[in-house]
Amino acid sequence: MSTDILHRTQYTFSIGGIHPRANKLTAGSPIRKAKLPPNVTIFLSQHLGAPAVCLVEKGQKVKTGTLIAKPQSFISAGIHSSVSGVVEKIEAMYDPCGYKRPAVIIRVEGDEWEESIDRSPDLIWKTGMSGPELVSRISDSGVVGLGGACFPTNVKYILPKGKTADTLIINGVECEPYLTSDHRLMLEKADEILIGIEILKTALSVRSAVIGIEANKPDAAELLSIKAADYPGTEVKLLKVQYPQGAEKQLIQALVQREVPSGKLPIDAGCVVDNIGTAFAVYEAVQKNKPLFERVVTVTGPNVAAPGNFLVRIGTPVRSILEECGGIPDNTAKIINGGPMMGKTLVNTEVPVTKGTSGILLLPEESACRKTEQNCIRCGRCVNVCPMGLTPFHLDVLSRHTRIDELETGGVLDCIECGNCSYVCPSSRSLLDYIRLGKMKTAHAVRERNKK
Amino acid sequence: MNVLVSPVILLGAIGAVSAVLLSITARFFKVHEDPRIDSIAEMLPGANCGGCGYPGCRGLAEALAKGADKKDISALKCPPGGNDTMNKIAAYLGMTAAQTEPTIAVLRCYGTLSAAPSKYRFDGPKSCAVENMLFSGESGCGYGCVGNGDCAAACTFGAITLSPVTGLPEVDPLKCTSCGKCVTACPRNLFEIRTRGKKDRRVWISCRNTEKGGFARKNCASACIGCGACVKACPEQFSAITMQNNLAYIDSIKCKRCGKCISVCPTHAVKATFEPPKKEENL
Amino acid sequence: MNQKTVISLSPHIKDSDTTEKIMRRVAIALLPALIMSVYFFGLRALFVSAWAVICCAGTELCIQKLLFKRASSVHDFSAIVTGMLLAFNLPSNIPLWQVAVGSLAAIGAAKMTFGGLGKNPFNPALIGRAFMLASFPADMTCWPLPHAVDGLLNFTRSGFDAETGPTVLALIKENVKNGAALDTLRSTLPGYKNLFLGFTGGSLGEVSGAAVLIGCAYLIFRKVITWHIPFFYLAGLSALTGLFWISNPQIYADPLLHILSGGALLGACFMATDMVTSPVTVKGQIIFAAAGGILCGAIRIFGSYPEGCSYSILILNAFVPLIDKFVTPVRYGKN
């Protein structure tokens, strides 16, 4: 590996940021196919927006890749079966938060794929489709943002009236500690990713794409840089190792030096941002006719016996993949869907993998609970690290007393919930908990006000 | 002596001039206020709880004075003051006040620490609003009390305390003024303002879980399973109990506190402030 | 899995720094000044410091446990730091009962009445000092000269009276009142080197500028404070005193003399940098420190007190909420 890559300029965002330990235990583990479980639980809401409408019935036979739910409205996405078998039941199941949500449970029988899916490993460059046709194909394949937010991808490429984009930004940052699924995908599927980016460029009618990669992944940055030479307009830019480098707003500022105005979307800064895994899913959807029904998940944790990166079918219970990692360590206290900074805790390991699951992190008892909250000592560390330039200690107090007006002017709706404030607070205050509560109440108040 | 003369004259003069200036300003800048408002405010409890819907007791006093001009104070009520206070104020204004039944805040949940044991551990601030925002709660029931005391903190009369035995809030009937602060504070809407009932007798369903019986029972032994036994037990002439979405509800106005529904409930979800009548022998 | 799963909101990892660790670092940073105070004033200096710490911690413990009936938070080391800083503002021959009264004012009135750590608007140690100066003016302004003690073991009050003297700043102020030229006075004052090392009269912690700076460097290195407040406080002080010194060097002392004498270094490095009573943004801190330094210079030159450091910081503490309200950090997306 040449040292040239490390001498390149490292871009970064200008406000705030922290440097947690990376703990990329699985950076060197190649992606393995996870074993098929006996049954899968596929929630009808695997994306932002309205839940999908179920198309199958109990007892119906499905194949891997069969459409089982269609999008309900514009901001919605379809869902395809990730296995072949029989639909056992369609009922409300406990989701990661412990609330009941409608889901389709399929009993797995064999692994028969839909005939239209191209399973050959050959690389296909040309698409022969126009922009709108590509967007339509992406929509039909149920592709959503795999960075964690799960926004229906096709919607991002149907630009609102009057808005234009000049740059496509591909997020290969993966700034969360522990997670390595994007890293491995870049190393193992670089060609497919670059073709996927070309497809997205055509869909957006832009000529330039920038792939942002954090400097702690020099091998991926080097590989993609070399291969990107064959794709004019696509370039790789190195980013400084800092959290939250991969946050959409911060990424746009670092790569193209533009800020997304408060309350607006990236398109208002002339950009569309998509995760590198999404680019790969787009390649498979367009060139291989393969809908989104499996994704790479990092299973890791300080005490996990054999952590690794797995290609998992959507709906697989977490327990099933953990068995391949040496089982759940005895002193596990927290099961997290995602990374340690923004991930959601799961109630148990029966919870299934969804389109937005980028990692499963198991934390032991000693690092599971917070220390007792103390008084705020006004040290200002939370202010220094907030990437949106807010004053978390103040927003925390305002939320506790429900001062909606001051919360709104204080910018609580701009909070990206990155977790930097709670991470640094020396008094172990639950800053982000209350800021989230304040955000919820303020958003509700703003909605009520706009109704009138 | 000479030393004292000039200061005395000077200060005296300053005092006199100030007095004149103050009396002139007091007359020219006087704020005319309805004298009734002061009198009404004195009759009110003075707790400023907001239960009437107005900002503080003075706010209600102003509304009552305005209402008296319009010859209609029927919509105004002071929950802590009750009928006694409203009658006194109405007499002062030369009107009659609407008589209302005394009410009290009732907790519609009996998911105690033993009935709904915790399956998970919540790690975060002691706030019901935060825990509710995050997940269903330690017992797994997404409708029940999470026991962090937002209601106790909201109560300005000190009527709510959290019981360390049951883990649930307890309403002190002597202190509760049914101002309604706990109703808004509870993120799960578990409090309801219900009539106190003659001789303090009242009955209610201590559950708000609308899931199918089997699922509800998995998380809490006191859950309403929607079997309908209470609906059948309620005498037809009262018909106080209705069933909707697997959950029973007792209308506190129609209910005549006969107590027949209490012992028929298989999960003891029907709670009362009195002992149920003994079942009649079938002759 | 043997235990119940823990459910919480993100983030699920945490920086290992705690309030206790931060306060402990401040206490460690004060040790060089403590050592130098013992060198100059004998073991009584150590005794006064330890007694102040005991009084402050004791007051906090009693108020929290007996009055509030809650768990005590003395283990967060903040009362201990306040005790040390209060002691550093006192002469070594201060009667111990007065130290106890000062501790009561510092912790009881200036900190606990507002709600404990983090809620006080004023620096508790400075309130304690101001309270003691107003209540016991004679005892608070009677500083023993260094090495006026016979041997390290002299920790009683006896034999001190003959060896006390005014500080450098008091002498300069007296000189200005008399209208005498500064040069003639200068020959009797300690030179810069002696002032810097601590061979001068004054309170326990303020005499040795060298020790204070070592402590300050440690705090900056351990990322407890940043360089901005100490630098801009001293810059403000130098700017104002420098202006006057240039206009008339015979009446006004030069900025270096001002920085090295009195409590300027101790105030700039340890009092003004108290995180509870200083602004949260860097820009705010610069405004706070610069204004404080200028005000300190103004009190020294125009005021009737020879020393203006503690009052300048206390006055600026009152402005901190205003500074924090208007000096807000740069917001993303608001340009």
What does this structure look like?
The complex is a heterotrimer of chains A (452), B (283) and C (335). Chain A has helices at residues 131-140, 153-157, 181-188, 190-204, 218-228, 248-256, 276-287, 318-324, 381-385, 392-400, 404-409, 420-424, 431-451; strands at 10-11, 31-33, 39-43, 53-54, 61-62, 67-70, 79-80, 85-94, 100-108, 167-172, 208-214, 234-239, 271-275, 294-300, 308-313, 332-337, 344-345, 359-364. Chain A has 452 residues and is an alpha/beta fold. In chain A, the strands form 4 sheets. In chain A, strands 2-15-14-18-16-17 form a 6-stranded mixed sheet. In chain A, strands 1-12-11-10-13 form a 5-stranded parallel sheet, sandwiched between helices. Chain A starts with 9 loop residues before the first strand and ends with a helix. With 283 residues, chain B is an alpha+beta fold. Chain B has 9 helices and 9 strands. The N and C termini of chain B lie far apart (110 Å). Chain B has helices spanning 2-28, 35-43, 56-69, 82-93, 128-134, 150-154, 181-185, 213-219, 229-233, and strands at residues 103-107, 121-122, 160-162, 169-171, 191-195, 203-205, 241-244, 247-250, 270-272. In chain B, the strands form 4 sheets. In chain B, strands 1-5 form a two-stranded antiparallel ribbon. Chain C is mainly alpha-helical and 335 residues long. Chain C has a two-stranded antiparallel sheet with strand order 2-3. The radius of gyration of chain C is 21 Å and the shape is globular. Chains in contact: A-B, A-C, B-C. At the A-B interface, helix 13 of A face helix 5 of B. Strand 2 of chain B pairs parallel with strand 1 of chain C.
